[in-house]
Design brief:
Shape: elongated
Number of domains: 2
Largest sheet: none
Distance between the termini: 82 Å
Structural class: mainly alpha
Radius of gyration: 26 Å
Number of strands: 0
Helix content: over 70%
Length: about 160
Amino acid sequence: MTLAAKKGLVLGLKMLPVVISVISLIFAGLAFHRQTVESEMQLWNSLRREFDRDMKKERKACGAAFEKGDLQAQYGPVMDFFETVGFLVHSGRIHDDLFDNTWGYYFSGYFQATKPFMVEERKRDPSTYEEVFWLAKRFPADRGLTTPDDLKAFFEDEKNLPE
């Protein structure tokens, strides 16, 4: 073996741990990304279950209260849910598109109907519903909810959610 070949072999052997470390970091990064995506989906599933099942009673109550003109007394739990989801979207734990496709329509309906009440609450404490208002700036009103009749139909559907 020539001297140049021996030097090349020695250099290659010295670089082997670096190469192995780089490959390990790549695989760790891929695993971390996969875990992050799975975590986001688990969080989404949990929140979806909460909104669709656990909050059904509150959503139905909001529908009935809207019909009676008394939504102010009922909107808190639903908008608190959107405050939490807004924080998660704002902090990057839930992707914008996932929020918009899952809850955008519902958020739009509830926000439009409850905005005056929340504005009054924010006069006393400006941090109240901070993430809800951030969501409202980030996601424009749903095109299917632009008229008072649209909102009336929206809350009629909420009132009549199946058991």
